[in-house]
Structures are given as structure tokens and as C-alpha cells.
Write a structure and sequence with these properties.
Blueprint lengths: L9 E5 L2 H12 L5 H14 L4 H4 L11 H7 L14 E4 L6 E2 L3 H10 L12 H17 L9 E6 L5 E9 L3 E5 L8 H9 L4 H7 L5 E5 L1 E7 L1 H14 L4 H16 L5 E8 L4 E3 L16 E3 H4 L2 H9 L4 E3 L2 H7 L4 H8 L4 E9 L2 E10 L17 H27 L7 H18 L7 E15 L2 H30 L3 H19 L5 H23 L1 H13 L10 H30 L3 E7 L1 E8 L11 H26 L8 E7 L4 E6 L4 E4 L5 H9 L17 E6 L2 H16 L3 E9 L10 E7 L14 H7 L1
Parallel strand pairs: 1-7, 18-21
Antiparallel strand pairs: 2-3, 2-8, 4-5, 5-8, 6-7, 9-10, 9-14, 10-11, 12-13, 13-14, 15-17, 15-18, 15-19, 16-17, 19-20, 21-23, 22-23
Helix pairs in contact: 1-2, 9-10, 9-15, 13-14, 15-16, 17-18, 17-19, 17-20, 17-21, 18-19, 19-20, 21-22, 22-24
Length: 788
């Protein structure tokens, strides 16, 4: 704040009276030796002709002519021996005025340039006005509270690097004196002032302009806090959600300040622990100096043996003080070539690791040799922990963004193919950031082998319809009894008519049940029977208990009885849940054969789809033996699921039967994730034949017969090629030896279906164990067959 600002409460007078008072007291002190007293007398005698320096000078410009005298006065406070080390000067608090700077301070200001003006960072006139008032309260009213905050000067050095200095004031040489316009401050005033420090008008009322005199001087001390400030700035930058370009730009400035290198550049390279690759970050647009133009590079070829050992194995800094000399020693290897491409002459490569695991490599590069070295590399020790935290935070945020995109576009995705969706989500996010609009593309897997299987509850529609019919008949029986009782009490013709309708509907229900029957009966009960029941309840209290009991039995929402259907639904639900749980458990073993896509869905039973192929797996070679193993796993698992089904269904009131089917398809096909339907489906008209077979096969008959290919307690394997038959007979023989299936193998042709001809089938009967088979194979199934 300018001392001449019209609202400033202090009239400033630079005075050295406190020093004179100190010296005069020293002469009176008997403990001070005569030699020192003689020195003090000499100073006092020397300054005696300049009383204005003790009374106070308001015009700072006149101080120049007293330079020699002031130098003598300040000799004890500014020792010559310390002047090259200390950063200090005479000042007035909260102003940008300085006098008698130390040698080091003078050098700092000279390096800053002629046009540089000292300015307190984030200068706020109102705040410094209040600080001046607080100084008055402290010195004259005995009120001392600390409302100060750190204040800084930001001063460029000779190379243009901004250095940060924390300001501290020594106010021992100040008197604050009242004037005729000073306002006496009461405790009530202090309470009000502190209650609202932002009400500057009230503060100005209590502290009018120049109502107090500042007499004396303060000593300004500066401390170089560039490194601490840079770390603080770094933490703030890393916590703020900004675009990566802005983050890197701030990174550059911060590290330039830390290392005092104006044109220092910063890069970051991600380390993929799984693939052992160095690659560009997906979520940070950062420069890369060690990857050259590559998006990724195997770390063993991207780094030389010594840098690989330092960064990847030991997680230590790798420093090149002279890149050109390194290039000659290494025969211009990839790392040297990459660095020289950007004219890098020295660099520090710092590992960013967490819990012993390398996350990334921080790259600091300079265009001059030796400027970055093993000594100044140690400056990173205080910085790296914050970069680690920030990278993890940004990575987590990016991964959540990817998950949000996938959840929005694709709902739930099987873990084995999630990598492809993550890859597309990354592309989607990059396109969205770049253009403001993006479309999530369909995911296609080519050349995959499909496996399909189902365990189906036999005659499920008939069993469910029987349950519905029983509930409807039971409900009609109840209302028939109620109306008969009402008719017996009062021979009202409408009761007799209602009885006639109830009996007629019962007869139709037994002889002519169809899909519309249930709704007709529900409408009949709701529209014609229930209103009359309400009337009977009001006029025949003796029957009201029966009617109340009837309403308690039926469902309040639907108005129908729900007993037999409940048994059916709960039985099917429990059976399906058990089948699904068993399949999920077995899948954990199957995934160890070779990672593949698996989905199951519940109907009246449980169907499952499996797709296996190299295109679905990230960097994992596919062999036919994996397909064979999975086919055998599927067949054995179906036997085990059948066992589980019959084991638990015995516990239910409603007996149900099941049959199983496996569809063998020996050609590869392409599957596409349909973004609109949120599911995988076969891709192209040629591959559609597979879906047609799936939809129609379970209702098919044996050719030239009326016998269904699916039967209770049996597994049917549908195929089209002779090689498939040979392969599956081999699996069946193996399972016969393990007592999974009986010795009989049925072999027949399947009737021609619409659009599908030439299918054949094998059918085997499952051996039901006393306790269902739970033992998992300890080694791959194909190997076990071969060993036999």
C-alpha cells in the first residue's frame, strides 16, 4: 500500500530515534566496556548534526543525501560480513519502499532488471489497511491477535526464472503515535471490528486517514522459498482438475523454478506393468522424449541395459549429463536417438513407483550438457510423492470416466472382453475432447468359435398353465360356495344368475383353456362378481367373514389367487438360480483353459453362449486344443448340472423334469456388440444361420418321427459334420469311463427345419449320482483323454 494513499491511517516518518535511544542506554550500562562505549560516543557525535533523522522524515526522496550517516547508524544491524548472505533492507511494513539493502538483496534487484518493480504478491489494499490498523491496536490499545498471513515477493533472476521470497518484518524500531484526529478505540469497537473484518468503511471510520504517526523503520528480511513454493504450487496444480495441456504447462514452470533452468522441459511416459511397455498416457497429453515418435515401446528395446536396470529393476534415477557422449558409447541406441532428436544434451529420468511397482517415468531434459546431473536430481526427492499421488488420482478419474462411458453405452460387459471396450472408450473420450462430439463404435470380434448349451425344464408351458388353471378353478370354487350360501339365505335371482355364470366359466376353463382364458376370468371376477360380493357383505353379515377370507387369499393387485403359480414360479426360480450358480462356479475353471466370453440367461431353464478365439483375448495365442478342451468341459459340466437339478428338485412340492442340449458349430463366425440392444449378436447374413438353428432346434423332432430330440435325463448333441460326431464320441467314451453317462449312444438325424437341413445328433443318458458331482478336474481334460 502506498503511504500516500488517501485512506492510509498512518502518516509515515522514517526515523532512527530508536537506535539513538539504544546507544544512549548503552552508555549508561556499567557492564559495557570502555572500548565499546568509546565506539558508541563516536557514532552519536557523528550523527549529532542531523536531528531530522531522529525527529522523522516524511519525504523519502530526501533520504538519499543522508546515505553515509544512515550507513553508520545501521552498521550494527547490517554487519558487512553478513551482507553478502542476508537478504534484508530498511522498509515501512506493507509498502514497496526499501532503503539500505544488503549486498545480496542489491544483487537480486539488479539481476531482476531496470524495469522490475517490487510488488507484494496478491496485493490487496483493504487487507493491508486492516493490517496497519491491527498494528495500531497492538501498540496503543494492548490488543494483540495474529491475523497475518504469509506475504511474498516474486523476483526474476538473471535467467528469467521466477524466485519466491517470503517476507518477514522486524518492528522493534517503530513507534505508533496518536494525532489530534486519532479515535480512541473501545473494547466494544474492537469486538465490532473483528466481527466483520470485511466492512472496510467501518474500519476507516475508526482509523481516519493519517490519524496516527508511524515513526521509525522496520527491517525487511527475505527468505528464499522457491523450492517450497514450487512444491506447494505443484500440489495445487495436481489437485485441480484441469486439462492436461494446462497441467503440463504449469509443470514446466514449476520445475524450471526448482532447477533454475529457464527452458527446462518436462515429459511423462507411462509404464504398463503387464505388457512391460513404455507408452504414452491416455489421460495426460504430455511430451515424450524417450519414445521418439512411437506410441509405445518394449522397455528392453526402448532402454539400454543400464537405464533398464536403474529405472525398471531398481527404481532409481537414470541421469545422462552428456547425451552426445552417451550416444557415441551406446552406438546411437534407441534412447540416445530419441533424446538427440529433440536436441537434448542432458536429462534426468526418474522412476515414479508405488509399493514397489513402477507406474511411470518422469523425464526432465535440458538443451545444455551437465545442466542436469546426479547432484541436482536429488531435488526431486521432495516432489515425486506428490506426482505419484496425482497420477493415481488422474488415472482413477480416467478409469471412472471409461467405466461411465462403457456403462452408458454398453451396460455390463464380461471381464474377458472388457479390454476392447476400454480401448474404444479411450478413443471415444479422445474424440470427444478433440471435437466435442463422439460416437461409440460397435465392437466386432472376428473368427471366433461359438458354443451353445441349454438345460430346459420339460413342458414348462404346460406345467405353468396347469398351475394357473388350478388357481383359477380354486378361486371360482370359493366364490361359487359364497354365492350358494347367499342364495340359500335369500333366494335373490342375481345370485342364481351369478352361480350359473361361475359354473359355465368353470366348465369352459376345464375344456377350453387358452392364452386369453385367464384374462377373461379376471375381467369377469372384477367386473361382475366382486361388486356383488361387496353388496352381499353389506346386507348379509353372516357371510362377510367368508368374503373377507376370500379377499385375503387373492392378490390385492391382480385380484386372482396365487397359490399353485407361486409354487411353480418359486420352484423354477430356485432351480434356475442353482443351475446358474453351478455354471458360474464351473466357469472359473473353464476360464483357466483359455480366456473366453461367457454369458447365460434364464428362461424356463438356463441357456448359455460361449465364444472363444484369439481376437477376443489381448496378446494370447489361440490353439485348437483350447476349443476341444472347452467343448469337453461344456459336456461334462452339463452332466454335472443335470445331476444338480435332480438333486434339488426332489425337495420341492412340484416335480419337474429337465433335458439338456448342446449345439456344435464347427465354423468360425463374427460377433458384434449391438450398441442399440446392449448385447452381442452374430454379425452378417452368413453367420445368421447359427442363430436360426439356436432358436428352432430345441423343439425339433427326430427325422420321420414325432419324438422330440430332447428328452428327460438325456443330453442331445446337435452337429452337422462327421468330424464333429467323431470328436464328441471321443468325449462321450471318456465320460462313460468316469460314470457320467450310460454306455448307450443314440445317433439320429434331425428333422429339416425352416432354413436348416442336414443336422444330426448324438444323445446320451446322464447317470444320476447319489450326491451331485462337484469334483473339479485337476488337469486339462484333453490331456486326461490322451492319457487314457
Amino acid at each position: 500500500m502506498n503511504a500516500h494513499h488517501k485512506h492510509f491511517p498512518l502518516e509515515t516518518k522514517i526515523s532512527f530515534h530508536k537506535i539513538v535511544e539504544f546507544y544512549e542506554e548503552k552508555l549508561k550500562d556499567s557492564s559495557v566496556n570502555e572500548f565499546e562505549k568509546q565506539y558508541v560516543r563516536g557514532i552519536l557525535e557523528y550523527i549529532k548534526p542531523f536531528p531530522e533523522l531522529f525527529e522523522g522524515i516524511s519525504d523519502f526522496n530526501t533520504l538519499k543525501k543522508y546515505k553515509d550517516v544512515i550507513d553508520v547508524l545501521l552498521n550494527d544491524l547490517f554487519p558487512t560480513l553478513l551482507s553478502s548472505n542476508e537478504i534484508k533492507a530498511i522498509t515501512v511494513p506493507f509498502q514497496n519502499f526499501i532503503l539500505h539493502p544488503s549486498i545480496r538483496f542489491s544483487d537480486i534487484l539488479e539481476n531482476a532488471g531496470k524495469d522490475f518493480e517490487l510488488q507484494i504478491r496478491n496485493f490487496n489494499e483493504d487487507f493491508f489497511f486492516v493490517m496497519s490498523c491491527m498494528l495500531i491496536l497492538k501498540t496503543n490499545f494492548g490488543f494483540d491477535t495474529d491475523i497475518s498471513r504469509p506475504v511474498y515477493y516474486d523476483i526474476p533472476d538473471a535467467d528469467g526464472n521466477i524466485k519466491n521470497y517470503r517476507i518477514s518484518y522486524n518492528a522493534d524500531f517503530i513507534d505508533i503515535l496518536p494525532t489530534d484526529t486519532s479515535v480512541t478505540i473501545s473494547q466494544e469497537d474492537i469486538d465490532l471490528l473483528l466481527q466483520d473484518i470485511d466492512d472496510i468503511s467501518f474500519w476507516r471510520e475508526k482509523f481516519p486517514p493519517k490519524s496516527w504517526i508511524f515513526k521509525g523503520f522496520a527491517i525487511l528480511n527475505l527468505t528464499d522459498v522457491t523450492l517450497d513454493n514450487a512444491i506447494s504450487e505443484l500440489k495445487t496444480t495436481l489437485l485441480i482438475q484441469e486439462k492436461s495441456e494446462q497441467i503440463i504447462e504449469k509443470f514446466q514452470t514449476i520445475f524450471q523454478s526448482i532447477f533454475k533452468i529457464k527452458d527446462l522441459r518436462v515429459g511423462l511416459t507411462e509404464f504398463d506393468y503387464k505388457s512391460r511397455e513404455l507408452k504414452r498416457f491416455d489421460f495426460l497429453k504430455t511430451p515424450n522424449f524417450i519414445l521418439n515418435e512411437n506410441s509405445h515401446k518394449d522397455c528392453e528395446t526402448g532402454l539400454c541395459p543400464s537405464s533398464y536396470k536403474s529405472l525398471i529393476e531398481k527404481h532409481e534415477y537414470y541421469v545422462l549429463t552428456n547425451v552426445d557422449a552417451y550416444a557415441k558409447r551406446s552406438n546411437n541406441n534407441f534412447l540416445a536417438t530419441s533424446l538427440q532428436r529433440y536436441d537434448v544434451k542432458s536429462c534426468i529420468l526418474a522412476p515414479i513407483a508405488k509399493e514397489g511397482k513402477l507406474i511411470a517415468v518422469l523425464e526432465l531434459v535440458s538443451y545444455r550438457k551437465n545442466e542436469l546431473n546426479r547432484i541436482n536430481a536429488n531435488k526431486l526427492e521432495d516432489v515425486l510423492p506428490y506426482i505419484i499421488t496425482a497420477l493415481e488420482k488422474n488415472k482413477e478419474s480416467y478409469e471412472n470416466k471409461i467405466k461411465a462411458v462403457i456403462q452408458k453405452e454398453c451396460t455390463s460387459i464380461h471381464s474377458n472382453v472388457l479390454w476392447v471396450f476400454e480401448k474404444e472408450a479411450k478413443r471415444y473420450i479422445q474424440e470427444l475432447d478433440k471435437t466435442g462430439a463422439a460416437t461409440f463404435k460397435d465392437i466386432v470380434f472376428e473368427n471366433v468359435y461359438p458354443l451353445y448349451g441349454q438345460i430346459d425344464i420339460n413342458n414348462s408351458s404346460k406345467v405353468r398353465n396347469d398351475a394357473i388353471m388350478k388357481d383359477l378353478l380354486e378361486q371360482l370354487d370359493i366364490v361359487e360356495l359364497i354365492f350358494q350360501k347367499a342364495l340359500d339365505q335369500k333366494p335373490i335371482q342375481i345370485y342364481e344368475h351369478s352361480l350359473f355364470l361361475i359354473k359355465k366359466i368353470k366348465a369352459d376353463l376345464i375344456t377350453n383353456y387358452n392364452t386369453s382364458t385367464e384374462q377373461k376370468i379376471v375381467n369377469f371376477l372384477r367386473d361382475e362378481i366382486h361388486p356383488i360380493l361387496t353388496c352381499i357383505e353389506q346386507i348379509s353379515p353372516e357371510i362377510s367373514a367368508d368374503i373377507k377370507e376370500y379377499h385375503e387369499k387373492i392378490d390385492e393387485q391382480t385380484g386372482v389367487l396365487y397359490n399353485h403359480r407361486k409354487i411353480y414360479d418359486e420352484t423354477v426360480s430356485t432351480l434356475n438360480k442353482t443351475i446358474a450358480t453351478t455354471l458360474d462356479k464351473k466357469q472359473k475353471v473353464a476360464q483357466k483353459i483359455y480366456p473366453h466370453y461367457f454369458e447365460r440367461y434364464k428362461t424356463d431353464g438356463v441357456d448359455h453362449n460361449i465364444y472363444i478365439g484369439e481376437s477376443m483375448v489381448n496378446n494370447n495365442k489361440f490353439h485348437q486344443v483350447y476349443l476341444q478342451n472347452l467343448r469337453l468341459w461344456q459336456l461334462q459340466t452339463m452332466c454335472e448340472v443335470e445331476n444338480k437339478f435332480y438333486e434339488i428338485q426332489k425337495k420341492f412340492l412340484l416335480p419337474l423334469d429337465a433335458s439338456s442340449l448342446i449345439l456344435v458349430y464347427n465354423n468360425t463366425l463374427s460377433i458384434r456388440y449391438r450398441m442399440d440392444e446392449k448385447r452381442f449378436d452374430v454379425d452378417g447374413t452368413y453367420n445368421a444361420r447359427y442363430e436360426i438353428i439356436k432358436k428352432r432346434i430345441d423343439k425339433a423332432n427326430i427325422k420321420n418321427t414325432q419324438e422330440r430330440i430332447t428328452q428327460k435325463g438325456k443330453i442331445v448333441i446337435v452337429y452337422s459334420n462327421k468330424s464333429d460326431e467323431k470328436e464328441y464320441k471321443k468325449y462321450i467314451h471318456f465320460l462313460q469311463s468316469k460314470k457320467y453317462v450310460t454306455k448307450t449312444i443314440e445317433n439320429f438325424e434331425v428333422e429339416d427345419l425352416q432354413g436348416v437341413v442336414g443336422l444330426k445328433a448324438l444323445r446320451v443318458e446322464v447317470i444320476y449320482q447319489k450326491n451331485s458331482i462337484e469334483k473339479e478336474p485337476k488337469k486339462p481334460l484333453i490331456k486326461e483323454i490322451v492319457s487314457k
